[in-house]
Structures are given as C-alpha cells and as structure tokens.
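Let us begin with a simple case.
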Amino acid sequence: MSTFQAPKGTYDLIPPRSAKFLAVREAISAPLKNSGYGYIETPGFENVELFARGVGESTDIVSKEMYAFETKGGTKLALRPEGTASVLRAALEANLHKAGNLPVKLWYSGSYYRYERPQAGRYRHFSQVGAEAIGAEDPALDAELIILADQAYRTLGLREFRILLNSLGDKECRPVYRDALQGFLRELDLDEDTRRRIEINPLRVLDDKRADVQKQLVGAPMLRDYLCDACKAYHEEVRQLLTAAGVAFEDDEKLVRGLDYYTRTTFEFVHDGLGSQSAVGGGGRYDGLSEMIGGPELPSVGWALGVDRTVLALEAEGIELELPASTSVFAVPLGEEARRVLFGVVTELRREGIATDFAFGGRGLKGAMKSANRSGARYTIVAGERDLAEGVVQIKNMESGEQSAVALGLVVEELRGRLSS
C-alpha cells in the first residue's frame, strides 16, 4: 500500500477505464474539428482577477470554490475553475480577433479545479472539453454549437439526455428585469448570503436548488416577459434553427446557470440518470465578457461538456463503447537469441502502425502466454531456438488457438494481412 493517496475529491485515470475517457474526449472534439474549430491550450492557473471579473464575484465558483494562492513574488493566482475566461484571455493576448476572420473558433480539453463537497459526479478536479466562437453575434452560431454538442453525444450512443434552453436578455432589457426581480426577492424570507446575492446578481437566486428557496420563488417575475424585441427575435431564430436541424430542446425560463457573464442564449445538457448532479454540460452567449476583462467588444458564445459526467451518463444507460484493442500482437521469446530477434520484429511491427507488446522480464512460456491473454492481443508470436534455426516463428491465433509457422522475413506482411481481414 502506498504512503500517499490522491487528494480528497480527485481521482486517477488508470487503464482500462482511462480508455473510455479518451474515447469520450475524442467523440466530443470530433464534430468541432470538422466545423472549423482549432485547438487551444491554456495554463492550469491564471491571475485571480481574470476569474473575479469574468466569472463574477457573486458566484459560488469565485467566492467559495476557487483554489487561490499567492506566489513568492506576491502575484495572486488561481487554478482555473472553468475554461471560457482563460480561452478568451489567450485569444485577446494573441490578437486572434484582429486576423480578420471572425468568429475565432477554438476548442480545448483539460482539467479544472473547484473546492466543492465531493460526491458522485462532482469532484474537486474534473475534466472538460469546451468550444468557443469569439467575435460574432449570430443566432446560427449559437445553434451550431448546440447542434455539435448534440451530435457528439448521439455519436457516443447517448439518448436519455435533454437540452434546456433559455434567453437571459441583453444590456438593454435585462436591467429592467433585474430591478423587478430584486423588488420581488427583497420581500422574501432569505438568509444573509442570499440577500447579498440579490444586490449583486439577483438572477443567481433563481438558480438556488434549495427547496425552501424554490417554494418562495413561485410567482417571481420571469425574464421572458421583459425581453426586448431584438432578444425575442434572436432567441426565436435559435429555436427555429434547432428545430429545423431536428434537435429537440425544452424551454426552461428559470435556467440561468452559475456564471455571471452569460447574455441572451443559455443552455444546459442534463441527464436524468445521474441523480442530483444531472448537468453533463452547458454554455451560452457571453457578449460582454471581453470588455469585462479589458478587451474590445467581442460578442461570443461557447460551451463546456464534462468528460467525467458524460462517462457516468454512458454507464447509467449501460452503453459500452467499442474501444480499439490496445494490443494486436504480443511477442513471446523463448531464450536469449529469440529475445533479441523478436524484439527487432516488435520494433518493425510498431513502425508499421501495428499495436504490439513484448514479454518483458524473461518469464517462461506459461507466464508469458498469460500476459498475452491479458493484453487482449489477437495474435501471439512465439519463437525458440529450434524455430530460429529453421528461420521461422510461430504465429498463434489467440481466439481459435490455431498456430502456424511463418518465415521470419514475412512476419510483418503476414500479420498485416491477417489483422486487416
């Protein structure tokens, strides 16, 4: 037993389960790669102020969940709790928006960190794949991103997820709604923290999951009744584009999500098989975020999908992904001369793109064949002194048990043919 364990609320990805996570990341990113999104990677930590300004001082993420620390030089940094602010910061710093090709379309994959109470589906270290389209205000762009996420989930085989959709208005109509909502909320029996939130970002109170709060919210003014004509038309266009694409969604007038930067379109992917942590991903439009962090006006939209929760959703639906075998061929040498010769064959097979492993450690035939079985290889190459003297190796079909001698010089060609059939 090791002296050390993974920190509370974190996990290690180890084979064979790690292959499932890699497959999920690939499935989510595949539609993005085919739609003009380029890969971006940002540091695991950023200036604290980036998240305070962008994500919002009133959010639980910034006020309670962020891992913040001070460097020896006195700089205040934080482990990234989400991806959008970092990606937008990087795009602005590199002047991608000045290249003349808007929107700037980017996708990313990585680990994020929040200090939360660990439970199934909620970790202090988690993995996401995200996408951002920066610098264009177009309902077709909002619809595109929702459609690509839907496509990714359906490619994985998921069927029991729902898409929730709402509009949060813009800088013209939301202040009027904000005033009406604040007036309603100030009359409720709420705790001090929630009352403080009313003054900073009252929409976040609508997102409160506590039953006693939700009970008091019955009759609260709804944003749909305050949307300006431009926001109504924008939202209706998103809805029509999704409907035309055959993507089902549910209108959810209480959907606000947990980040302060959202405007207009906001959406969430939920899976009812995950219990209380039902959100597997979500996103929305954030037209003012660039200005919040010191950049120019750049209307943008994006999403992030949780890899961890997507894996849990797959398991909840009993979906087994068809994962490629990590090993196709396993080489078992019997004796030192065979060891040198077969190691050369293994190297040649790998250069040809054939997944091949080797019986390391000088084990006997029985132990080596057990390793070959465990590897999942379709074929095993076995060679001893007599085989080498005759210039052959034995190729064994691990499924049928059939074994045949093949000339040493033809092993790669023979295996390539068998594996392709």
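The second case is a distinct protein. As before, the sequence precedes its structure tokens.
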Amino acid sequence: MAIDRIWSYAPDSGHVEGQDLTGFTVAATDGTIGHVDREADPHGMRHLVVDTGVWVFGRSVLVPAGVVTGIDPQGRRITLACTRGDAKAAPRFQTDSETRDREYLTAVGDYYDRLPPRARTSA
C-alpha cells in the first residue's frame, strides 16, 4: 500500500463520506480489537481512534483509514487488513494531542505501510 494511500479509505471499502463511524466494532483479520472512539483528519491524515477496552490494558490505538478493508453500516462493523498483534504493536500515543501531531501520524503511517499485505476481506 502506498504511503499516500494509507490515509484514505479504499474506494471498495464501503466508506460513505460524512458517515459517523463512532461506536462501530473494529475487527482485525484474527478477531475484534475494539470500538471506534472517534475519527479524525488532521493534515489530511484520516484515521480512526479505536478504544481497545481491556484487551490492550485500556489504551486506544490509531488506525489509518487505508487499513480499513470493509465497512458494514447495518452490522456497525469495520474490518481491517492487519492482525490484532499488528494493531497492538503500532506506535502508541500517550496523549490525545499526539493524534493531531504530524510527526507521530507519519510514524504510524510508516508502520502500517510496512506491514505485509494481507488478503482483503469485506465487513
């Protein structure tokens, strides 16, 4: 996946502009990782902040929009092209302000861009 595409939803992802994804369940290729806390687009770097609950000791993870492979609005479910371990190992943020920091977002984009390609699945 090209780094410039990591911050945009793929045309076949099912994303509809203006759709509120808050509360949607987020599933990696090997299981659920949490729920969408919010979606943001600072500096044109669109991403989801996913609340992992107790799975990752109560911390949230940031997932670039380009990692989303499917959005099911009826089932309120989002699927990703990464594993739970991939999401857990992503650069973590300590404060919400980092989710708007270009340097941090670039590190996250680089991390996800380097992951091995995975089969695309629909929601």
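Residues 28 and 83 are 5 Å apart (CA to CA). The longest helix spans residues 102-114.
Keep these points in mind for the review questions at the end of the chapter.
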